[in-house]
Description:
2 domains, 18% strand, alpha+beta, five-stranded antiparallel β-sheet
Amino acid sequence: xxxxxxxxxxxxxxxxxxxxxxxxxxxxxxxxxxxxxxxxxxxxxxxxxxxxxxxxxxxxxxxxxxxxxxxxxxxxxxxxxxxxxxxxxxxxxxxxxxxxxxxxxxxxxxxxxxxxxxxxxxxxxxxxxxxxxxxxxxxxxxxxxxxxxxxxxxxxxxxxxxxxxxxxxxxxxxxxxxxxxxxxxxxxxxxxxxxxxxxxxxxxxxxxxxxxxxxxxxxxxxx
Length: 223
């Protein structure tokens, strides 16, 4: 079976011929792939991106157990949403951990790399907590001309003090989620999706980290 980089090339080539989605084309190429050897618990956790102890505590199963359950359900050939439904509806896993289990399984089975979506695109997330009330953080974020370093974000939709959906200069989606952590403490989580390459994802990860730091500096100056 080809290595990851060669597999991606074959998937893209098949997409060009058949018009299938990245996920569908990849699944067809992998149909005759022999079942992967079972890895040690620590190897599965490293691939999944969260510890075996954490997933067992929150979901009642280790990564090895989740792989067996989802393999039996044929999840390796399913779309992301279909796997998530199995995890949530058939096994009663809460919403956040449903996504963690689904993404972790997809990484373990080679359906996506870390930071990569099932469509082949990459995404990055950055979070920061500030010692200010939620309303104050929201106001600082809205004044993005003060911390975006000359770049532009285009607003799509927003729910005040909760979530803001935007478009980056190349039209890729950016979402900011806001959470009160107490009367004088709040957090923003930025998610930037549909990035074309790992290199671009790492560049934007550094960029958004610097942006969040500049927001902190502005809040300190205003305080």
